[in-house]
From TrEMBL:
<feature type="domain" description="PAC">
    <location>
        <begin position="98"/>
        <end position="149"/>
    </location>
</feature>
<protein>
    <submittedName>
        <fullName>Diguanylate cyclase</fullName>
    </submittedName>
</protein>
<dbReference type="InterPro" id="IPR001610">
    <property type="entry name" value="PAC"/>
</dbReference>
<dbReference type="Pfam" id="PF00563">
    <property type="entry name" value="EAL"/>
</dbReference>
<dbReference type="InterPro" id="IPR029787">
    <property type="entry name" value="Nucleotide_cyclase"/>
</dbReference>
<dbReference type="InterPro" id="IPR052155">
    <property type="entry name" value="Biofilm_reg_signaling"/>
</dbReference>
<dbReference type="InterPro" id="IPR000700">
    <property type="entry name" value="PAS-assoc_C"/>
</dbReference>
<dbReference type="InterPro" id="IPR001633">
    <property type="entry name" value="EAL_dom"/>
</dbReference>
<dbReference type="InterPro" id="IPR035965">
    <property type="entry name" value="PAS-like_dom_sf"/>
</dbReference>
<dbReference type="InterPro" id="IPR035919">
    <property type="entry name" value="EAL_sf"/>
</dbReference>
<dbReference type="Pfam" id="PF08447">
    <property type="entry name" value="PAS_3"/>
</dbReference>
<feature type="domain" description="PAC">
    <location>
        <begin position="224"/>
        <end position="279"/>
    </location>
</feature>
<dbReference type="InterPro" id="IPR000160">
    <property type="entry name" value="GGDEF_dom"/>
</dbReference>
<keyword id="KW-0175">Coiled coil</keyword>
<dbReference type="InterPro" id="IPR013655">
    <property type="entry name" value="PAS_fold_3"/>
</dbReference>
<dbReference type="Pfam" id="PF00990">
    <property type="entry name" value="GGDEF"/>
</dbReference>
<dbReference type="InterPro" id="IPR043128">
    <property type="entry name" value="Rev_trsase/Diguanyl_cyclase"/>
</dbReference>
Length: 1058
């Protein structure tokens, strides 16, 4: 017992001694200027003490390291921790470790670099304790990295620099081969080469030119540049790089050339970039097919060399494209153009020249074809391009008009062929559009006669510069500022045809004076007078469109007047003019002048100026019409005539004025809200437009009563409201209350209309443009409408990101179909009791490049929005029918497989959908009873009558009908008796609740009601055995979900289940 007490006392003394040593060590190291820690060894390295400097470096507190509760592995970067274990092992062998660098992960998860060194300072209970010193070297590492980066840059520059010193000794007739060239040489030990060896390394196509350059440099002192291709590697390599050589021949004391020196460097990349830029110049930026200029040049180059064979040029125009842009916006318009360009490119072989030659106009030049093949291609193109765009109640079918011209019969150059095909295309447009035809075909078969008649009617058979005229028309069609655009056009005319003055005059009604309205001059004159007397009788007597030129005698006679008019600047020596007619028979002229005396006008110039006078006449007419419209708008005092609210432009101006006039804007919150009335067409269609107008007026009065800052009726039933409040919550509350008040009135008057308000709110902040704020409010409004939120939705940035993603998805869709990126997956359906497969559901999956498979919730909404979902639905149906055909031929048993169809199919009565179903099934020998058509429950609340009609016909064709996602919408069970459905699928949201409280009983009762109406129920989303057992015990027979199997590729499904 005494021995035991003695051992206990000794042990306690050791503990006290150890604690004193630890305390002394802590006192010693704590204030040292370098980082010091004591680390306990053993199975893992744990920190025992950390001094002030180490805590500062690492960002931890001293308390964080107390009681050995932090391991070194938590503190040190995982890639560096092995060095600490190695250092500890060195110390255990009785040595001090070498210094080593490692990374510390600080408390705020940043990384710093430190230099470490280990040594043992004690053992406790046979466990080593290490004293680890460290100091921050982060700044040094940064400097080292900078130096390393600089060195790496220089190394890379040395590697990529292909500069070769050229030194040719004339007397020895040999080149010195520099070190950097040896990597290209066959024999890397040879330091010199003769001229024949050099010539042999030059590309055969460049050899003669290089040899002549070299021989010329041997004759006299000179400097020069040469570009050529130099072989890389041995003779058999066949690889060449482009080089540029700057050389100089040097004469000796006797005047004879002794050396040719210079430097050569690799310009392969430069050449590639140059060729790429040349290719880019040829491509249309939107569609990536040839642009107008490149198309013509490529076709003309081919026709110059090819004198035989039959070649056809197509001119293709999108019908009613302006209507598409006006209805759906330019983003959708651009997508339509891109999609059609892709279809055209895929329709024709790689040998065909495909170009975009106008906003919505394309051309295709097909080599070595026949009339029959060309006509078949045109018919196929017109058929394939047809698709329906729908949204916000508007439906537009995209179609094409195609004109064709053939070499030989219709011309031998691009310009002539294009003009003939263009005439044919416009003939198609005038006679119903959505068709194709050759030049030379009229309504009765003689388009050429009509074409020649039109040519004969042209009183001046002049050659006009078509390219420049197209520029003028483009400028006119995109003009926002008519006057400014006209000035730009005058300048372009002057500079292109080297005129010194171009001006536009309008004649006064009295015929005595003319008004200068636009003028350009390259001499900087400011013309003193805008009203001039008419002193040129010949021009007054000229016919409209006639080119008239002054005589030297008349010019000299009027010289004083011209000098006075032009502010005594250099006089115009030669003048020509073309008279034009504009609004209601008024006349004017376009004048062109040159300081060159006796200027001779070329036929091209005369023809172009005459044609341009017509363009100018349109400009002047538009300008006058705009002035009249502006006066009318001014009379309306910037108000919407129906509601009395601001119109759009006035609202934009008023918004800026109101916000600038606010005295204390920082004390308030401001918001722009966009509102529209859902299902507004219900009133117009059932009660008349007058009743619809009364609703708009009443909503306007509500806004006025709410004392908003300003309100505007954009168009139809769309409104903008500028609000001010003390907080965002206040504005949201007022929007919610206003919506509820008006919705209550609508519900009272039109209980069957389902009319509600969708409101998108964008709070104003920063310096966002009006267009950005408006777009933001509109995105929020669309979100509110799509999600049936009537209290108003506040814009968040994710809405714009979602929209941009939707645009990307819609843009890539048709190309993705062609490239096979869409796949059909199948998810099996099982009998719950027997756990055996009895059917499946077909689902779409999109392999989206490096992102892998895109989930349907990422791409389906975007395709729904654009109406492209209809194409996807039929693509999956056809994939399913192809697999079924394959299984049937191989003797496998078929069972019913369901496939989804969007609500978009049932718009406008669903007749197009039914016709397409007939056409699709006619192509395959598959009984329709094996196909189950799935539609979501929400369709029943939106388009019940259309749905009933379609479902009845589909049932008569033999299809099975399934109602998907049942229970997520607002339909009643009574609707099931109206729809000839065979199957009702209960949504996964109900399956998730069967094991929760009393929810399972509700699902059970719902199943009983459905079974009373239909023969089959499929429960979706079964994921656990408990769910399966519950459903099976409550009378449910069929289900699908991950408990049984996930959706899998069709080939895998075939191997697994058939």
């Amino acid at each position: 017992m005494a021995e035991f007490n003695k051992e206990e006392i000794d042990y306690k003394d050791q503990l006290r001694q150890s604690e004193r040593e630890r305390k002394d060590l802590k006192n010693i190291i704590y204030e040292l200027p370098v980082g010091l820690i004591t680390v306990k060894g053993g199975n893992e390295l744990t920190i025992d003490i950390a001094n002030h400097e180490f805590c500062r470096m690492s960002g931890y507190r001293s308390a964080d390291f107390s009681m050995e509760k932090m391991c070194m592995a938590q503190l040190i970067h995982m890639e560096d921790y092995m060095m600490f274990e190695d250092a500890a092992e060195v110390c255990r062998r009785g040595k001090t470790s070498d210094e080593f660098e490692a990374r510390i992960v600080t408390a705020d998860q940043n990384v710093i670099w430190a230099m470490f060194q280990f040594q043992i300072y004690t053992y406790r209970s046979a466990v080593p304790y290490y004293l680890v010193s460290c100091w921050d070297i982060t700044e040094r590492k940064k400097m080292e990295n900078e130096i390393m980066l600089v060195n790496e840059r220089y190394r890379m520059l040395e590697e990529v620099s292909n500069d070769i010193v050229l030194d040719y000794d004339v007397k020895k007739q040999q080149f010195e081969i520099p070190e950097c060239y040896l990597k290209f040489a066959e024999n890397k030990s040879v330091k010199y080469a003769g001229t024949e060896e050099l010539y042999g390394a030059i590309h055969p196509d460049d050899r003669e030119r290089f040899q002549k350059m070299f021989e010329t440099a041997l004759q006299r002192e000179m400097k020069g540049t040469a570009e050529y291709r130099l072989r890389q590697g041995g003779k058999e390599s066949g690889k060449y790089a482009y080089f540029r050589t700057y050389y100089q021949s040097i004469a000796d004391y006797d005047g004879k050339i002794s050396h040719i020196i210079g430097r050569s460097y690799d310009i392969s990349t430069e050449r590639a970039v140059r060729e790429k830029l040349l290719r880019e110049v040829q491509l249309d930026p939107l569609t990536r097919i040839y642009n107008k200029t490149a198309s013509g040049e490529i076709v003309d180059a081919f026709l110059e060399k090819s004198t035989q064979g039959t070649h056809v040029l197509y001119v293709i125009d999108i019908d009613d494209f302006k209507k598409i842009n006006d209805t759906f916006g330019h983003t959708v318009g651009d997508m339509v153009i891109s999609d059609i360009a892709t279809l055209i490119r895929e329709q024709f072989t790689d040998e065909a020249v495909v170009g975009r030659v106008g906003g919505d106009e394309f051309m295709v030049f097909v080599k070595d074809t026949s009339l029959q093949e060309a006509e078949a291609k045109a018919e196929q193109l017109c058929t394939n391009v047809q698709k329906t765009l729908s949204g916000d109640g508007a439906v537009i079918v995209v179609t094409l008009s195609v004109g064709m011209a053939m070499t030989g019969k219709d011309g031998y150059d691009y310009s002539t062929l294009f003009e003939r095909a263009d005439h044919a295309m416009y003939h198609i447009k005038k006679n119903g559009k959505n068709h194709y035809g050759f030049a030379g075909e009229t309504e009765e078969g003689d388009c050429e006669g009509k074409y020649r008649t039109e040519e004969k009617e042209n009183r001046r058979n002049l050659v006009a510069d078509k390219e420049f005229l197209n520029t003028a028309f483009s400028l006119l069609s995109h003009a926002r500022d008519i006057n400014g655009s006209l000035n730009v056009l005058l300048e372009q005319i002057g500079r292109k045809y080297q005129m010194n003055m171009v001006s536009v005059f309008e004649y006064a009604p009295d015929g005595k004076n003319m008004l200068l309205t636009n003028c350009w001059s390259d001499m900087g004159q400011i013309y003193e007078k805008n009203i001039l007397p008419i002193t040129w009788p010949k021009l007054m007597k000229a016919e409209v469109g006639e080119f008239v030129q002054t005589t030297p005698k008349w010019q000299e006679k009027r010289k004083k007047e011209w000098l006075e008019w032009s502010g005594n600047a250099i006089p115009i020596q030669s003048i020509a003019a073309v008279k034009f007619e504009y609004s209601n028979g008024k006349t004017g002229c376009i004048d062109v002048g040159s300081v060159e005396q006796g200027k001779q006008w070329r036929t091209e110039e005369i023809g172009t100026i005459c044609e341009l006078s017509r363009v100018v006449a349109v400009f002047v007419t538009l300008r006058e019409k705009m002035q009249e419209d502006q006066q009318a708008i001014h009379k309306l005092k910037n108000r919407d005539r129906l509601t009395g609210l601001y119109n759009m432009e006035a609202f934009r101006t008023k918004l800026v004025q109101l916000l600038e006039a606010e005295e204390n804007p920082q004390e308030n919150t401001y918001a722009l809200t966009m509102v529209d009335v859902n299902n507004f067409s219900y009133v117009n269609e059932n009660f008349g437009a007058e009743m619809g107008d009364s609703i708009l007026k009443e909503f306007s009065r509500l806004l006025e009563r709410k004392k908003v800052m300003a309100a505007c009726r954009m168009y139809s039933d769309y409104f903008l409201v500028l609000s001010r409040g003390k907080s965002q919550q206040e504005i949201r509350r007022r929007v919610k209350e206003g919506n509820e008040e008006f919705e209550a009135k609508l519900q009272e008057r039109y209980p069957a209309g389902g009319m509600k308000l969708s409101a998108g709110i964008c709070f104003l902040s920063g310096k966002s443009s009006f267009e950005t704020i408006l777009e933001s409010a509109n995105l929020a409004r669309k979100y509110a409408k799509e999600h049936n939120i009537t209290s108003g939705v506040v814009y968040i940035e994710k809405m714009r990101q979602t929209r941009d993603e939707q645009v990307l998805i819609a843009t890539r869709f048709h190309a993705a179909i062609q490239r096979g990126e869409f796949e059909m997956f199948l998810q099996p359906k099982f009998r719950l009791k027997e756990n055996t497969i009895y059917g499946a559901e077909a689902l779409a999956r999109w392999h989206f490049g490096e992102d892998g498979y895109l989930q349907p919730n990422r791409f389906v909404p975007a395709l729904e929005l654009m109406g492209y979902i209809k194409d996807l639905d039929f693509f999956i149906l056809e994939q399913l029918l192809k697999y079924m055909t394959k299984w049937k031929k191989s003797g496998k048993s078929l069972f019913t497989i369901s496939t989804n169809f969007s609500r978009k199919h049932f718009e406008n009565g669903g007749e197009a959908f039914l016709q397409r179903m007939h056409e699709t099934m006619d192509k395959y020998d598959i009984d329709p009873s094996y196909i189950e058509v799935e539609v979501t429950e929400s369709v029943m609340t939106e388009k019940l009558e259309d749905l009933k009609h379609c479902m009845i016909e589909l049932a008569q064709m033999g299809f099975r009908i399934a109602i998907d996602d049942f229970g997520t919408g607002y339909s009643s069970l009574s609707v099931l008796y109206e729809i000839p459905a065979n199957v009702v699928k209960i949504d996964k949201s109900f399956t998730d609740k069967v094991m929760v409280d009393n929810k399972g009983e509700f699902v059970s009762q719902m199943g009983k009601f459905i079974r009373a109406a239909k023969e089959e129920i499929v429960v979706e989303g079964i994921e656990t055995e408990e769910q399966r057992q519950f459903l099976e015990s409550h009378g449910f027979e069929y289900g699908q979900g991950y408990l049984f199997d996930r959706p899998i590729p069709a080939d895998e499904f075939e191997r697994k289940y058939l």
